[in-house]
Amino acid sequence: MPTKLYVQRDQPPGVPPLSLTGERTLPDVPAENYWYRRHLVVYEWIAAQVAGQRVLDMACGEGYGSNVLARSASEVVGVDANPEAHEHARLRYTLPNLRFERALVETYGEPGTFDSIVFLQTIEHVQDPAAVLTHFQALLAPGGVAYVSTPNLLTLAPAGAEKSGNPWHLKEYRAVEFEALCTSVFESVQMLGLFHAGKLRAHALALKLGWDRVHPLLRVTQPFYDRFTPAIATTDFALRPGPLDQALDFLAICR
User: Fold this and answer.
1) Which phi and psi (to 5°) does residue 193 adopt?
2) Pairing with 134, which of 8, 142, 168, 213 sits 20 to 30 Å away (CA)?
3) What mean pLDDT comes out for the span 63-70?
4) CB count, 10 Å around CB of 240?
C-alpha cells in the first residue's frame, strides 16, 4: 500500500487525492515528479499543435493533461474508465471547454467527431492495440490526427529483456515495432523521440562517470535526490526525431 509519500499533496478543497499505484502518473507527488514532467512535456507540445480543435484525450487518468490541452483547444473531452481517477479529474479541472467522461477507450465516441485524439503512455496497457487505433481512426474528422506515445523497451527494460517489471504493461515496443503497429492502421506516421536534456542530461553523464558509486560513499544519496527529483522541469526533456533507439519514449503522429 502507498505511504503518505506517494499520495497527492495540497489538493483543492473537496477534491479527493489519488494514491500512486504505478498504473498512472500523478502531479503533486514530489517523488513522482520525474515521470510527471516526462509526460507533461509531451502534453504541452501537443497542446501547441491543437489550438482551436476538438480534442479527445483517451485514458486521461488524473486529468492534468486534458487540462493542459484545454488551454488551447476549443473543446476537450477526457475519457478514463477508472472511477477514482474520473471523479478526481471532474472535480479538480473545471475549465468551461473541458469535460470528463467515464468510459472505455475501446468503445467511447461517435465517428468523425474529433479533430485530434491524444493517447499517451497507454497503448502498452491494452489487449488489442490495433483495434484501439482503428477505433481512433474512425473517431477522427477528415484530416484529423492521433497522437500516440509509449515507452521505449530498449531504455525502459533491462538489456535483453522483452519487458520491464511494470505489471500494468502488456507489451512494450521497440521503435520499429511501434511504427509498424501505427502504420498498419494509419496512412501516414511521423515518429518522434523524447530524450533527456538540461539537468537530466548532465545527470546521465555523471552516472557514466561513476556518480552511482560516489554518492553512497559520501552518504548524500537521499539528500541529493530529495532536492534533485522535485526540481526536474519539462525543460529537462527534449522531443525530436531521433535516434529513436536511444529515446525514452516514442510519440507517433498518425494521420
Assistant:
1) -120, 150
2) 168
3) 98
4) 12
State the Cα–Cα distance between residues 17 and 88, nearest whole angstrom: 7
Burial class (CB in 10 A: 0-12, 13-18, 19+), 144: buried
Q: How far is 233 from 37, CA to CA, in rounded Å?
A: 6
* Burial (CB count within 10 angstroms: exposed 0-12, middle 13-18, buried 19+), residue 137: middle
pLDDT for the residue 164:
93
CA-wise closest residue to 42 among 147, 175, 164: 147
Fold of 4-196+241-254: Rossmann fold (3.40.50)
Q: Please, are residues 226 and 186 in contact by the beta-carbon 8 Å criterion? A: no
Radius of gyration of the chain (CA): 18
The residues near 208 (Cβ < 8 Å, ≥ 6 apart) are none
Give the model's confidence band at 4: pLDDT under 50 very low, under 70 low, under 90 confident, else very high: low
The reply to whether the predicted model has a pTM over 0.85 is: yes
Q: Please tell me the number of Cα atoms within 13 Å of 73 on its side-chain side.
A: 32
Cα(118)–Cα(126) distance, rounded to whole angstroms? 15
How does pLDDT run across 102-130, given as a tens digit for each residue? 999 999 999 999 999 999 999 999 999 99
pLDDT of residue 2: 40
CB 252 within 8 A of CB 178: yes
| Residue the block writes with cell 507527488 | 29
